[in-house]
Write a structure and sequence with these properties.
Elements: H1 2-10, H2 14-24, H3 46-57, E1 65-66, E2 73-74, H4 79-93
Antiparallel strand pairs: 1-2
Length: 94
């Protein structure tokens, strides 16, 4: 318990504090124990796992770049790439 207090006292950013508190919540990591059963829709792609783990750890998912679809600048949160990835996933499911 002392380690949690030490980490919590060293956090100065509100985003980091929210991430820390969310990670400490009961059952917050239960999704890691889900069996990857494809017929039931319980299988994440490698890319989905990469993004989920990066977000959970507070890492940048990607660096700023030009969107390959529309040419606008996408920031570290990659909104264009996320939309494109979701659209691709939806098209594959159809």
């Amino acid at each position: 318990m002392a380690a949690h207090a030490q980490v919590e006292s060293s956090i100065s950013d509100s985003h980091q504090m929210a991430r820390f508190l969310a990670a400490r919540a009961p059952h917050s990591g239960d999704w890691l124990f889900a069996f990857p059963i494809s017929p039931c829709g319980l299988r994440l792609s490698d890319e989905a796992v990469r993004v989920a783990v990066a977000l959970r750890l507070g890492c940048s998912v990607c660096v700023a770049h030009s969107c390959f679809k529309c040419g606008t600048l996408a920031d570290a949160h990659c909104p264009g790439a996320a939309r494109s990835s979701m659209q691709t996933d939806l098209q594959q499911d159809s």
